[in-house]
Amino acid sequence: MTTALIDLRTVARDDRDVRIALAGELDLFTSGQVQSRLRELADSDCRNLVLDLGGLSFCDSAGIELLVRFDRRCRRAGTRLLLCDVPPLVTKSMRVLGADRDLKFVVS
Predict the structure, then answer these.
(1) What is the pTM of this model?
(2) Contacts within 8 Å (CB) and 24+ apart, 74-78
(3) d(CA 24, CA 20)
(4) Which residues of 28-54 are buried (b: 16+ CB within 10 A; e: fewer)?
(5) How far is CA 53 from CA 2, 69, 85, in A?
(6) Strands 17-26 and 48-59, how do they pair?
(7) Rounded distance, CA 51 to CA 22, Å?
(8) Per-residue model confidence as pLDDT tens digits over 61-101
(9) Which residue has the higher pLDDT, 45 or 24?
(10) Apex CA 89: angle with CA 84 and CA 91, to 5°?
(11) Per DSSP, what are the bridge partners of residue 59?
(12) Quick one: pLDDT at residue 1?
């Protein structure tokens, strides 16, 4: 039996906004699992896509790079990616990698 190390679920959706919660480990192994689902969301007609990262227990540089690429894809599609409840260690890693310059953080 295989246990998923990452969980992505839609928490709320209305005509213009979608809120997604990520929980678990976002790393080189799991980012591929998350990427295809995030692509679908980026191509939807939502105005704001809020990623709640409060459930992340770990995020490496591959996970952060996925978020940066996803942000670019959202911008091209006319969608704003907003990150909320980002764990302190993930925020620190984003700062070290310079990803915080591109990503938009909001308070939930």
Answers:
(1) 0.89
(2) 74/42, 74/49, 77/42, 77/43, 78/47
(3) 13
(4) eebbeebeeebeebbeeebebbbbbbe
(5) 23, 16, 6
(6) parallel
(7) 7
(8) 999 999 999 999 999 888 999 999 999 999 999 999 999 99
(9) 24
(10) 45
(11) 26
(12) 41
